[in-house]
């Protein structure tokens, strides 16, 4: 009798940590400088080079990187910031944190990135900024967004939390708008556990970032504070991890692309699924392998029963319970009603995220592909 193949356990994400990260952290601890110091400075330099920007500062995480970027640009109470309906809720929460109002716009159907053709109707006299979010490993279409921003005197905050290594028309995302914000949470292409970065190209913005992130002063150790600021610093232990990670970025990207190609070739004949790829203007650094699938809920259960951890697509912001409108409360976000986001809604009902991380094996991908093929057979 043929043996039943053993079930596997394939998590949604496994951070790619090796002896390099351990040695780097250990050396930091032995050197004894654990707050922002030489490793943080070196990590900032490496990030600036990767994103091709002249300036940048570290932040404690991606959400606070966005909040810091918004604050540095002077966005606050009374201002509106246009954001896509499909994104991680941190994008919206950062806008709320600085006292501004997120205005929700639908995404476009091929890549589920913010739809530049729908921005114009969101504009009011309160609109101060647009926050394109480079989602799932591809870039938003930045040219029309930047052109519209220029026409209307708006600022552009790129949410590149998931986007390190992604290029739009040959240029790294995060370096195209007024500020670009990154996350180094454990599921990101490179990680520091928690961590973030704000990139910018303008010296005045950089000075504002420096002041705001370090209690309103430019020099450490001084108790004279020329401006009001906060504490948005990181630690050198995290930067030590980041430095080891960024050295492997090219390899991680290549491995993710190989795994993605294996999914694509394995599923090419399954007409019930569509794998989201990169837009034609963008390179692709798959953050997840995102599948638009018929009977998505049942497929998810089928995969999870076989040990594969699946995540849903992001839940549309206009449906988030925390942003709901009831008789007694006014929503903190501005949306255009439940019928105004057909693409975002379809993404949530059909979208599933398959695992894609450097230590996932080709064999794991074949296992997942076989399960999907069997589900629809
Ligand atoms: C698109 C997007 N924006 C913002 C964030 C927030 O980053 P963090 O979790 O580091 O605060 C994330 C994190 O997953 C994200 O995916």
Describe this structure in words.
The chain is of the alpha/beta class and 377 residues long. The chain has two domains: 19-107 and 115-246, Aspartate Aminotransferase, domain 2 (3-Layer(aba) Sandwich); 249-376, Aspartate Aminotransferase, domain 1, CATH 3.90.1150.10. It is built from eleven helices and 13 strands. It has helices at residues 19-31, 38-51, 62-72, 89-97, 142-152, 203-213, 236-246, 249-267, 296-305, 342-350, 362-376, and strands spanning 55-59, 80-84, 101-105, 127-130, 155-159, 167-168, 171-172, 179-183, 196-200, 273-275, 289-293, 311-312, 351-354. The strands form three sheets. Strands 1-9-8-5-4-2-3 form a seven-stranded mixed β-sheet, sandwiched between helices. The chain has a four-stranded antiparallel β-sheet with strand order 10-11-13-12. A hairpin with a 2-residue loop joins strand 6 (167-168) and strand 7. Helix 1 packs antiparallel against helix 7 (236-246), helix 3 (62-72) packs across helix 6 (203-213) and helix 8 runs parallel beside helix 11 (362-376). The longest helix has 19 residues, at 249-267. The protein is globular and about 70 Å long. The relative contact order is 0.17. The model has no long low-confidence stretch (mean pLDDT 95). Pyridoxal-5'-phosphate (PLP) is lined by residues 61-63, 87-88, 90-91, 133, 159, 161-162, 183, 185, 196. Residues 61-63, 87-88, 90-91, 133, 159, 161-162, 183, 185, 196 line the site of pyridoxal-5'-phosphate.
